[in-house]
Design goal:
This protein is α/β, with parallel strands linked by helices. The protein is built from twelve helices and 15 strands.
Length: about 450
């Protein structure tokens, strides 16, 4: 076989000089030239301009538009059939009879047409936002796995930062919840018990309930954390979640309703103080901060905090038979007899300006000094609970908190009487004192 070479095959092809290349490049039609060929009357493609989030507005053409026979279907401020707001071909955009198009958003897109699995399509072609899905079932994990998480229906755990409105809240058993309560639990609460607490609280308050879970790591670690919360030291995920939630809602003009039990009330107190300091650091005045915090409604049940920042509206429930609020929290309003308690409500402690206090006695003598006794349980407190609209008429509502000066004077009088009794009847007085000490111990 012979190889035949033609002259054309052997002749090298001339190369373009750089100047020639630039000349050829410069002869390509510009965007404006293409747009001018696609003009029908006053409506031009270059009236679109791309924006962030994939949207467009009049000014320039949408990204991705290529000349075709439908170019004349563009009008000022509209999009053509067959494209989304980015100009990408898309058949789910509908065409109106007069030529412009309207969006028929597909499932899986937000209102801008951007893919987003939180959106779904309704039968009328509109979209609605899907509920945020929980990260996992709180009840099936170790306690610390959901520390500081929001918890809703069926133990669904949602990561910190989730808006309460995006949580599938626990509804009252009758299915008729009014408003939303954010509940923070006390120490020693296991995940399964916390889920039960949410339902119990929903039934008692008549509200939908979202929990902020305060994880348990055993009595010693839980107690150490409570002491740190009292001193506002260290980090507590439940404090951070509660503080962020409150700050986000009140700065957006939304009311917040918080319920804290035991250490949960301590967490609420610490979180509110964090929010107060954050607002002050932004340059707001005390009056402005108090006005913002006035959107917060707080109810504590056997709370372990001794002070609460001014601003929020408080209702505190205190069981005199409960060791936690009596000795570690706000204390009693007026301990009987000669008492040296460091927690006298309104004297040594601060329930928050304008606070309402409901004080009752429900427990046995044996339980009075047991922090884990039934007198401290959530169930006991909910038996004496009244909804906010009814608390003013609660039979155990404290009409007036003691005045510090009057209390000091009454203690001085009681001390003088005690000394006089010791002098006149030393044996009888010592017997009475011994009986009181035994009551405290046992």
């Amino acid at each position: 076989m012979s190889l035949r070479l033609t002259k054309s095959a052997l002749t090298p092809k001339p190369s373009l000089s750089s100047a020639s290349a630039r000349n050829v490049s410069s002869q390509k039609p510009s965007v404006a030239q293409v747009a001018s060929k696609r003009t029908v009357g006053p409506s031009t493609v270059d009236r679109f301009e791309t924006r962030g989030a994939g949207q467009s507005r009049p000014g320039n053409r949408p990204v991705g538009i290529v000349p075709d026979r439908k170019a004349d279907r563009f009008d000022t401020g509209t999009v053509r059939p067959g494209t989304n707001l980015n100009g990408v071909p898309y058949t789910r955009w509908g065409e109106l009879a007069n030529g412009p198009s309207f969006p028929q958003r597909r499932p899986g897109t937000d209102p801008s047409g951007i893919p987003d699995t939180n959106w779904d399509q309704l039968g009328d072609g509109k979209t609605k936002k899907k509920p945020v899905q929980p990260a996992f079932d709180h009840r099936t994990r170790e306690s610390t796995a959901s520390d500081g998480y929001l918890v809703g229906e069926n133990g669904g755990a949602y990561p910190p930062g989730t808006k309460p409105g995006d949580v599938d809240a626990v509804e009252p058993s009758n299915g008729e919840g009014e408003g939303t309560v954010i509940f923070v639990n006390g120490q020693g609460t296991q995940p399964g018990a916390f889920a039960d607490n949410l339902q119990e609280l929903a039934d008692a308050t008549g509200a939908n309930v979202v929990g902020v879970y305060n994880a348990t790591e055993g009595t010693l670690k839980d107690t150490a954390q409570s002491l740190s919360d009292k001193k506002d030291e260290g980090t507590n995920p439940a404090v951070e979640t509660t503080a962020d939630l409150v700050y986000e809602q009140i700065t957006n003009g939304e009311d917040v309703r918080l319920v804290g039990h035991s250490q949960g009330a301590l967490i609420v107190s610490r979180a509110l103080e964090d929010v107060r300091q954050r607002l002050l650091s932004e340059g707001k005045s005390e009056a402005e901060v108090n006005e913002l915090l006035g959107q917060v409604h707080v109810e504590t049940l056997g709370g372990a905090a001794t002070t609460y920042p001014d601003g929020p509206q408080y209702t505190h429930y205190i069981n005199r038979a409960d060791f936690v609020p009596r000795e570690l929290g706000l204390g009693e309003t007026a301990p009987p007899g000669f008492d040296l308690s460091p927690n006298v409500l309104g004297v040594h402690t601060h329930p928050g300006a304008g606070a309402t206090v409901v004080e009752f006695d429900d427990g046995t003598q044996a339980e009075r000094n047991n922090p884990a006794g039934n007198d401290h349980s959530l169930s006991t407190y909910l038996e004496h609970y009244a909804r906010p609209e009814d608390v003013a008429s609660h039979p155990d509502r404290v009409e007036e908190l003691p005045d510090a000066q009057e209390y000091a004077e009454s203690r001085e009088e009681a001390a003088e009487e005690f000394v006089e009794d010791v002098i006149t009847n030393p044996v009888g007085t010592l017997v009475d004192v011994a009986g009181d000490v035994l009551d405290v111990i046992f």
